[in-house]
Design brief:
The chain is about 40% helix and about 15% strand. The protein has two helices and six strands; from the N terminus they run ααββββββ. The strands form two sheets. A three-stranded antiparallel β-sheet has the order 1-4-5. Strands 2-6-3 form a three-stranded mixed β-sheet, with no helix packed on it.
Length: about 200
């Protein structure tokens, strides 16, 4: 028997050979897991279950103070809303009372005219006219002046057309007749003027 080492078989031409790998010094074998507690870094800051943030006594006191101030602000806001609602209702009632008080002299004069109607029937017409003028002046003092001009161009902000008539002497689209007077200006109008306008050709 021969004791000479056997020579490797010759590599066929064109075959790919793998380079011989030598184990690197200081590296664990593939697939080996490092045992816990044997060195290495701990879990990173993004690891789940990190340490909870501790709240100091000073921070807790500041949070309690902020919550107390927030609750007080809510209570103040609710009280302000209720007070505003009460004041608004009082102002409405006062305005209604002022308007009614302005009409009382008109009612008094109507009753006075009616009481004298039997003694002097002819004076009732003049008395009613005077009371009508008094009522118109009262509305003007409240901010609603009487509107009832004719011969002016039709204005949809002031007029309400209730009829169209043929009038050869009037310009087309002008007011030729006031059927019901209006009160107030366009920006503060109690009622528009009901008019008849000249027909356009």
């Amino acid at each position: 028997m021969s004791t000479q080492p056997q020579q490797p078989d010759p590599v066929p031409e064109g075959a790919v050979t793998e380079p011989e790998q030598e184990p690197e010094q200081g590296l664990p074998a593939p697939g080996a897991a490092e045992a816990p507690g044997t060195g290495g870094e701990g879990p990173g800051p993004d690891a789940a279950g990190g340490p909870a943030l501790a709240v100091s006594d000073e921070q807790a006191a500041a949070l309690a103070e902020l919550e107390d101030r927030w609750r007080r602000a809510l209570a103040d806001l609710e009280n302000l809303r209720k007070r505003h609602a009460r004041e608004l209702e009082r102002e409405r009632a006062a305005e209604r009372a002022r308007t009614a008080a302005a009409l009382l002299p008109v009612i008094d004069n109507l009753e006075l005219a009616l009481s004298h109607a039997e003694a002097d029937p002819g004076s009732i017409v003049e008395g009613v006219k005077a009371i009508r003028d008094q009522a118109v002046n009262t509305l003007a003092q409240l901010g609603y002046e009487r509107q009832g001009e004719t011969g002016v161009p039709f204005d949809p902000a002031r007029h309400e057309v209730v009829g169209v008539v043929e009038d050869p002497e009037a310009e087309p689209g002008t007011v030729v007749q006031v059927l019901r007077p209006g009160y107030g200006d366009p920006g503060n109008q109690l009622r528009p003027v009901a008019v008849a306008v000249a027909k356009r050709e």
